[in-house]
Amino acid sequence: MNFDYPGYDLRFIQRSKCTDGSAHQYTYIYKFYSPVTAYHYIVRAEYHRGNVFAIKFYCKKDRKSEFKYSKIVNRGDLGNVIMSCAKVIPLLLKKHPRASFCFAASRSIDKNNNTIEDYAQTQRFRLYQYMIPIKFGVLTFEHFAYDVVSSYLLYNKKTSIPKSYIEETLKDTYQTLAEVNL
Amino acid sequence: MKPTNKHKTHKPSKGERLGWTPLDDQSSQRVTDQMVKGRSISEKEIKSRQALHNVKNNLLVP
Fold first, then answer.
1. How far apart are CA A150 and CA A178, in angstroms?
2. Across the interface, do B37 and A167 touch by the CB < 8 Å criterion?
3. Distance (Å, rounded) from C-alpha A83 to C-alpha A150?
4. What is the pLDDT of residues A123-144, one digit of tens each?
5. For residue A35, what are the CA distances in angstroms to A12, A108, A116, B25, B32?
6. What is the mean pLDDT of chain A?
7. What is the pLDDT of residue A47?
8. B21 bridge partner residues
9. DSSP string, chain B
10. Extents of the domains making up chain A
11. A170: left (phi > 0), else alpha (psi -120 to 50), else beta?
């Protein structure tokens, strides 16, 4: 698979403030539609102290579920859905040229027998780890993988903020593994 | 009792097959310093993967 998918156009919805006192300051929310699955998807780019965005997405039909990030839609079109989410990064770089980007890959849920995937190297993480280096080069970012927490960091080479500060911020914001991956 | 042929038709779901954790098990480890120590993916590794997929001019961000 070479991930040669065009993805869909993102529509900006709103910027919503976060006032919980954590390092998470605000969120840009985008939306796109897949004609293949016939579902809308929501992409959230959560801006954190340290000039780092955490990118998340879910299928809009699951918006009320506490497991919305973990549900498997299972209607195909995975390549275009993932590429549509990835397209948020060049958009955000126009506004925040020194920003870094973090992806915490959720644990999948098997609703047939009410089980959830383990934390390390989730199937989503394995996909991101495969796809991100193919679509994001080394001129703008340094790439880091976090196998135990199934996360991936694109660390902007222009930032003056040390990587350790970003890691510490994310650790303080998401204190347990369940918070990171759900 | 009527014999069933469940043993022939039952296809275990993914979570069952891979031994995933029950959903109601809410125990969770605290994130430690060790867990947020990133493993660097080298430029060489990334470039070789890009060359393998012939995506040099097709990057979202260079």
1. 11
2. yes
3. 19
4. 889 988 988 999 999 999 999 9
5. 19, 23, 29, 37, 42
6. 89
7. 94
8. A116
9. -----HHHH----HHHHHTPEETT----PBP-TTTT-PEEEPHHHHHHHHHHHT-TT--SB-
10. 11-181
11. alpha
B60 in contact with chain A, both atoms CB, cutoff 8 A:
yes
Residue of B36, B48, B58 to mutate, testing the A interface (most A Cβ within 10 Å of its Cβ):
B36
Assign residue B59 a region: left if phi > 0, alpha if psi is -120 to 50, beta otherwise? beta
State the SS3 of A49-60.
Answer: CCCEEEEEEEEH
Q: Taking a C-beta distance cutoff of 8 angstroms, is the pair A125, A151 a contact?
A: yes
- Running DSSP on this structure, what letter comes out for residue A180? H
pLDDT(A73) > 90: no
C-alpha A25/C-alpha A45 separation (Å) is: 11
Q: What is the pTM of this model?
A: 0.87
Strand-pair partners of B6: none
Give residue A51's identity as a one-letter amino acid code.
N
